[in-house]
Amino acid sequence: MASLDDKWKAVDNFESVVVVDRERDVVRVTKELYDLHSNREQLRGVTSSCNYRLTIPFAPHHFGSGKTTFARTYLELVQRFGETFLSKFASDPLRRTFLEKLKRASLLYVDLRKLKPTRPIEEKRNLKWAVYYLLYRSACNQMGLPFMKPDEAYRHIPPYPSFLIPELRKTLGIPSDQYLLVAFDEIGVLDESLDEFHFKRTHDGRVRPYNDFFGIISQLCKEPDLFFIVVGKSKGLSIKNDVAFGLSRVILHFIPLSPLDASSIVEFLERSLLKTPTQEPVCNVLCSSSFSVNELADSLLECTGGVPGLLTRAVNMLLNYIVARNQPFISKEECLTCMNDYDFRRICAEPFVERILNLDEDRKSVFDLLLMMALYRIPFQVDDILSSESYLFDAVTEMGFYRYPIDENTFQILIPKVFVGIFKKDPSISSLEKILLGSLDVEPVDCFFYSKCRVFEGIVALRLVLMLSSKNRNELRELLCQLSPIWKQMKLPMSTISPIHYMKSVVSSRETRSESNKSRRTFANTEWNKIIRETLYLETVYIPLDATSHSPDIIFKLQSPVEPKVLTVGVACKGRWKSEGIGWSDIIDEAKKFLDPLYDQVLSSAMDYHHCMLIIVSTKLSLNVSNELGNQSRCYSSGMFIGNDSFKVPDNCELVILCERDMEMLIDKEILNGLERAFHVSHNPTFWDFGLDLLNRIRNSFLSWQ
Fold first, then answer.
1. pLDDT band of 451, cuts 50, 70, 90
2. Most Cβ neighbours (<10 Å): which of 30, 389, 674, 685?
3. Which SUPFAM superfamilies does the protein's record reference (predicted)?
4. What is the spatial distance between Cα 134 and Cα 196, in angstroms, rounded to a whole number?
């Protein structure tokens, strides 16, 4: 039997396809290179026009995002996409001529990790000479040629573009009119070079190494037929702003490098070949007749988030496992079981998560905020400020997370599931962070997208988890004990802090109803028994994945510690921001769709040990409801009537209506007002629309019950 280390060994088993799903990135970079080509005379001061600002393609991303692969293979992609995705770009004759020459360009790849202070002594701490010598040495290494030592090179290649570029072309064996693309990688090393070079200082005495570096490149860009791409792990937005408004005055244009989607992963699996004489496609090795490549792609997307480096590592580990046992996967469930194994995740994520596990306390202090943004799908704009010292764009990279571009200026935080187990093992994370991580891990979380009501439900659900598990005195728990004798008998606090689970519908036959001109999936009237028996586990809080008309918004199940009594609790979050609030008809509708079918299918045959409670949590109650409640929360027990005797509470059931004052124990008015403002601005509000104050208020409301 193989050991765990052998079972999940991340050896390189296959020849990865060059790259997939980079069409938009190639088009964007090609446009930027053409702008430099067509405006180079302005940089050289040959023309009187001066409206062009030098723009350089720049990819500041975390480890594994595909930035190095993109930089190395960009010219190959230009050749591949020349007649397809670049055809519109090349519809203009001048652009067509440029594109044809770009297809024949040469690439010089330069790893800035090899940038060191270089002799001669008088130039030892001169960054410009160090960059020039690294360019020369990289060209020699790329061609397998010997290179001059620094002293000799300095005499032969003085630090001026007119001497350097001809030497590079000579070394690379390309003519003077052939395009040369220089790809600088690992630009983040400049953060560690403050003591190695003499950098220029700003008027306030600060050192800006990136300004010096891009200032050097800006001078080289005046040379004809020369182009640059810069990539690396770095504080991208801080660098972009510093360079744009600093000494070098260069505009950096971000290359998004989106994570791969399911269809791109399918292409990746079909075109990548095993490292064997037969060169069998990877998908043929991993998939059986009962397990399709599409299912494998979905599994890998769920596990890795489509991050290219993680995807490649996960595929290698799966291949090692399958080749060793000589049998492909027979189902998606079997494949996911492997990828959900803690040791699989640990080994797969190891090279990627080191950054976050070694962060300082100041940066870790925003970990829960970023987790909230990932869970509630809150996008952010490229220039959103997290604090006076940090941009959100950069904080995501520093934390070791990924950015999924929604458009050119809007991003989503992506936390791959393989990271979650590693983070949860970190002894320094809080209870809140454990719940958020667990919630991100258990199910897809699309249910929060585009809806203030769903975010409202998510906040209430998380507060409920904290309320049910807190060992401290809790006003809401005490209130429910006063209102309901059944609640008082339940085992609280819960023994463990569970994440929020997103309950997939177990319905085989679905009903629909029209609501606000939308068709909503529903639980069939005969499905509650199956849901309660098979889906709901004790002390676990669920939000149904689909908006349904036959279920409340939140469901959980509790058990008595001394008697075999079970209480199934539904929470209906009525997000009514309108002035009239919710009336009795709304409350009765919620009660009928939950309490009635649950009684008919479950409680009527469960004797006295199974009970059910529906809690109404509303942003605003109507005047009629408030007056009847006397502005106090109330519990309606079995046999009681509500709404002018139009609904009778079934046996073993209770209906709890929280008054607005007590509702604020779950979510306060300022948060509700903030949600209303945010979603009033946009159907998909960003971090800016929410505002840091609102997100901090939500976070603090969680921490208060931790």
1. low
2. 30
3. P-loop containing nucleoside triphosphate hydrolases
4. 15
- Which of residues 493, 519, 534 is at a domain's end? 493
Query: Are 673 and 661 in the same domain?
Result: no
Do 114 and 141 lie in one domain? The reply is: yes
| pLDDT, tens digit, 9 for 90 and up, residues 372-383 | 998 888 889 988
**For residue 663, which of 614, 611, 621 has the smallest C-alpha distance?**
621
Return d(Cα 497, Cα 512) in angstroms, integer.
Answer: 35
Percent of the chain with pLDDT over 90: 42
> How many Å is the maximal CA-CA distance in the chain?
99
Question: pLDDT per residue over 463-491, tens digit each?
Answer: 999 989 888 888 899 999 999 988 998 98
Confidence at residue 521, expressed as pLDDT on a 0 to 100 scale: 45
Residue 641: Cβ-neighbour burial (10 angstroms; 0-12, 13-18, 19+):
exposed
533: buried, middle or exposed (CB in 10 Å: 19+, 13-18, 0-12)? exposed
In a domain, 228, yes or no: yes
Q: How many CA atoms does the CB half-sphere of 120 hold within 13 Å?
A: 10
Same domain, 219 and 122: yes
Residues 272 and 239 in one domain: no
493 prior amide bond cis, ω within 30: yes
Contact 148, 156 (CB under 8 A): yes
139 touches 108 (CB < 8 A)? yes
pTM of structure: 0.85
The residue range of the domain holding 602 is 545-665
Handedness of CA 388, 392, 393, 395 (dihedral sign): positive
In a domain, 281, yes or no: yes
Indicate the angle between helix axes 475-483 and 452-469, nearest 10 degrees. 90
C-alpha span between 451 and 683 (Å, rounded): 7
CB atoms within 10 A of CB 409: 12
Are residues 241 and 311 both part of a single domain? no
**498 within domain boundaries:** no
Q: In sequence order, what are the residues at sequence separation of 6 or more whose Cβ sits closer than 8 angstroms to the Cβ of residue 539?
A: 468, 491, 494, 495, 496, 498, 556, 557, 558, 559
What mean pLDDT is predicted for residues 587-612? Answer: 88
pLDDT on residue 48: 64
- Number of structural domains (the chain) is 5
Helix (H) or strand (E) holding 654: strand 653-657
Question: What is the DSSP code string of 58-92?
Answer: EEE--TTSSHHHHHHHHHHHHHHHTTTTTTTGGGS
User: Does residue 527 sit within a domain?
Assistant: no
